[in-house]
## 1
Amino acid sequence: MIGDLVHEKLKSRYTLSVDDFVAPRLSGVSLFEFIVAVVLSQNTSDKNAWRAYSNLKDRLGVIKPEKITSLQLEELAELIRPAGMHYNRSKKLIELAKVFVERDIEGLVEHAIRSRGVREVRQILLGLPGVGYKTADVVLLMYFNQPVFPVDTHITRITLRLGFAKRRDYEEISSFWARNTRPEKYLELHLLLIEHGRETCKAKRPLCENCVLLEICQYGEKQSDSRRPFKESG
């Protein structure tokens, strides 16, 4: 499968470190704390997200919904400032915490996993404040070990350049990787693609000449063709 081939090529190029990501570093935390950390990682670097999460962790110890709702908006915003958009993010976290206080979300999700399956759980997660498709799928894959493939901006860009998708459609791109990769490789490939986007397949000035995927990349092939010297015929 093409996903397995991409996995093999990227694994030959990059050595992953969990310290470079937020979600894989979390262990033994509640569902609420896990979601908070992933929300902090939205639209920012994992380094900044981890600083914001660490500030919150130092202030609250165990990050519980009741502790979040006890904070003033200004204090919460200051704690998570490193993640950026700190006031808007703080409002979402407070809304999220209130939902967890009012309802047994963790019990609801765990019951749905046992009896209804991934699709139902995904809908429950998508109904939570601050949770979009990527966040829901990160929770499903990394917290509940369910066979879904999260997609971020790096993975979207790489997939389009490779020619595996024609438009920026989350479901289409996620479905492509899920169909074409063995489930046991989902997590590692997800992280490898992000690393590839950070290091090589950058948004601006991608380093195509150093890319291990060049031979299967439509974008890279066009770049190579444009650099070849023109030869007159005859």
## 2
Amino acid sequence: MAGLLGPTNPVPGYDQQPVRITPALPNDTTTQNIVDPGRVVRPDNRSERQDNNDSAGSQAARYESNFMTFLQRLRSTQSLPDTVMKILQWRGLSVSSGIDSGFAREMSEFLEFTEMDEQQLLAFLKNQMASGSRFTGALFDALRGAFGNTQSQLLQNEILQFLRRFSDFSSTEHLEGKMLRQVDEMTQALPGQWSQQLTNMLSQLQNSIAAGDRQDALNILRNQIFLLVSRYVSSTHDHGLARNVLSMLTLDVARYENGSETGLLQSLRHLSAAGVLPESISGLGDAELLAMLRNTEFFKAAQNNAFADQLAQLTGRALRGEGGVNAQEAFRNVMNAFLINESVYMPLQHMMLPLSWNGELMFSEMWVDPDAEQRASGGESGKSSRILIKMDIGSLGAFDLLLETGRQGVSLEVAAPAAVSAHSSDVQRALGTILRRNGLTVDSVRVGEMKRPVTVSEIFPKLFERMGGVNVKV
């Protein structure tokens, strides 16, 4: 197995073998525009290209492509294990200058999630895997097959429309909470009687959401809240916080409406009439269909993901400054890392694991590509699974682990601190024994000293697949 975790690995390029790759040339016209966009200047004298011919490496903002901005931020984002390890070490945080008592209490509750035994650890990982896979089950397997086999653009659009509706339907609770927070934020931005009127509307909205009356909630949002804030903005010419929040609220209301049960069932019935659903699903009534959709692994995981909920609440308080400057900076880095890893451009499943094991603090994050391609020795392309794990163990330091499964078995490559790599032979034998004990065929196990941490883009060249597409910013 090639040294994927070696210190001299170049940044990978697209359409090259994921193991041995050559760096993209700065003037390679297969990936760069022949025209030099650095010579094009906007009316505000801002160059459209500010990367100094460095593909995703420059710290300057990227204006010509959303995708290149994603690659840039992926590369520049601070290491999540380093940041979270600092947070985990705040155990027993006491109230001091700049730290709110409520934040200290919530931090203590958050850190309790790191105390896990073997069964809790397994359940935690399974829950993260399920919550990261929204479209799983017999229904979505049937839709994937129908989408891939049909030549009808109309049918493909029907399938995509249903998936969008299901995505919004499954986000109902999240959208409701977000909309309530946005309206509450606007009440604080509006003065006097405007604020009082909006507060009364917020109470009505809370009652409608609590009663599960989506249509009444939409009526309050569209016919009362939108009208009030729009009238305030037009009469006062206040183009500040209230108008900005209203713009964001508009997007969430559109998703909330798109995720209605009525629209979801209507879209599903259209697919049933087209004959793409299994008979066992087509014959179900409306109540049974909704129960089936709510019984997916994603729904169950989202409802039981207390760790994510606690982290979101704690991050919000930290960003408001309740934990002081250090906490604000740390949680801002955590938030940025999550936004990158959950980006629409990220084709990998991302999980993380904060853990306190026998008094030892540890944090790891994992990227999984279940459909990675590998090149067999005979030149034939095959499927494999590739997993990158970054781990930071308090008393030992940082590790990079690459696990790859293929036709010949499992390959494991570990970049470890010097204190561990000094005993590489013993560690390799122990890791091989663990893999075989779990019923895996071992192809190779290698342990070496970490010279530098690897990046996600080095291990997964699949990230560069969209580089050849049209994706521009205005």
